[in-house]
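Students often ask what a holo structure prediction actually looks like on paper. The answer is less mysterious than it sounds. You provide the chain, you provide the ligand, and the output is a string of discrete structure tokens encoding the 3D arrangement of the protein together with 3-hydroxy-3-methylglutaryl-coenzyme A.
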Amino acid sequence: MNYPKKVRIVEVGPRDGLQNEKQPIDTATKIQLIEKLASAGISYLEAGAFVNPKWVPQMAGSDEVFIGVKRASHVTYAALVPNLKGFERAVAVNATEVAVFCAASEAFTQKNTNCSIDESLARANSVIDAAKAANIPVRGYISCVVGCPYEGDIAPEKVTYIAKRLLAMGCYEISLGDTIGVGTPAAVATLLDDLLTVIPAAQLAVHFHDTYGQALANILVALQAGIAVVDSSVAGLGGCPYAKGASGNVATEDLVYMLDGMAIETGVDLAALIDTGNWISGKLGRTSSSSVALASIS
Ligand code: HMG
Ligand code: MG
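The corresponding structure tokens follow.
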């Protein structure tokens, strides 16, 4: 079996991980989390979101986070933005990259962004145009790529349609979000078969929430298809506030353990990552959701 020699890990813990936390988390803790992740060798961090703070209060302080973080030269500090207003806020605090987001489900798009799929694509287009003018790379997310909390199973063609549109607008990469973690390797393989007929693996990333414990198996299927960018969240933090019951992303520790075991390079120091995951879990008053972190407690 052919696997990529290297995988780029997109650490989404500070954004996807923390956005769903109900308890207040101070800015200093968020900044420390980002700095610890960078020290552990993470090279791409989604550090915050410039969404409507009334919708996602935990991300309200993303401005202070971006301003306060001591930047490491090897790290990309990305921001999630829903519209031009969010893009302007991200640029004002020197986000290195931005990510726009759409979904392959009309119902989820309404709940998450208060608009239709077509309107969300138009918003993404305006962000991408502004980003081109400012020379800022744009990543695109598609949520609900295999299942939606409101519409159930999602047809692969819907995902491929949106992916093609976002790439044509100028996104350099599409991250495929299994927002509620319902996908199995069979469903992911069917989705990738459809996507890969028109989109090269080099323009795709995967973003699996681990609600049903399928994330690592699904990542393996993606690696076998030649995808070499994987999103994950330290300690398995997170979930989407508009996908009830959705748990965190695959834990970065578990991903790195698997990739280390397959001799696939990530540049990440597993021991330092486990320490970081245990530290943030302690700050949140719980144990880590990473199996590898739990197994490593001596
Ligand atoms: P809206 O309420 O329809 O927006 O929200 P609006 O344009 O009508 O504006 C209403 C008010 O919001 C105005 O203020 C705007 O200025 C303000 P007012 O006049 O009432 O004082 N506003 C903003 N303020 C700050 N920053 C902004 C911004 N935009 C408008 N950027 C909107 C529409 C899209 C903004 C809203 O629905 C929103 O913020 N949604 C984001 C929801 C979200 O963050 N969800 C989680 C992230 S997505 C995710 O987790 C999935 C992912 O991980 C992949 C996966 O797992 O599948 C990426
Ligand atoms: Mg997510």
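The first helix runs from residue 13 to 17.
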